[in-house]
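Hello forum,

I keep getting stuck at the same step: I have a sequence, I want structure tokens, and every attempt I make locally crashes halfway through. Rather than fight my setup again tonight, could one of you with a working pipeline run this one for me? It's a single chain of 257 residues.
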Amino acid sequence: MYRFLLTPRWWGINLFVALAIPFCVFMGTWQLGRFEDRVQSHEEAEKRPDPGTRAVRPLDELLPVSTETSGRPAEATGTYADQFLVPGRKLDDRSGFYVLTLLRTDEGKALPVVRGWLPGTPDGAEVPAAPAGEITVTGDLQASENTGSDGVNVRGGLPEGQLGMISAASLVNLVPYDVYDAWVTLTEPEPGSAAMEPVPAAAAPGSGLDLKAFQNLGYTGEWFVFAGFVLFMWFRLMRREAEAARDVRLGLAADAD
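Reply #2:
Ran it on my machine without issues. Output:
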């Protein structure tokens, strides 16, 4: 009755099932592992002191930016140079833009510094001038933004002097000097720039239970459902063909062959 399972067609079906189910289980287990890693990193971050409360360290000692150094106070000395406005940024659900000025350090590289946030649009806005001369800034360290960061503008077409994404990659073609692959946000308003509000540091990417973490959990369920579906369809096809073979044997249906 089940001799059809040894036919070439069913050998192909059986081979597909034998490969598909372990693959689905492997992918589901991998996605579950990624979710568990995010949960563990979140728990570790919860146990660590608030980065903003830790001692100020020189910038170079905190680079490259990691989940451990993100948000920690960094200190750098230099002179302000080129300035850009970063539109489409919200603060406490209010629309506005960042004022970002590059700090040329003694090493020759420039550190992007978000000096503050202003409401409205950058066009025609009155932006406080950056302090002149050599200055030491202290701000919370942040990793370069990417296309998935909140508020990033990847459409392009911004007016001259505006920037859609705070990253060394987006600045390298706009200034004639090297830029650190990081940036800082000032924690206190600059003297004489009361109109600008400090921008709070964001949590390090991958250190919290964000939407991506729960996406991993959702993908875990999907892969296990796929494995169950493959097994269900194999069993259903097998039962249907077995019943057809039985009907032929009993003379209830003509032999398709």
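The two ends are 15 Å apart (CA to CA). If your local run keeps crashing, start a new thread with the error log.
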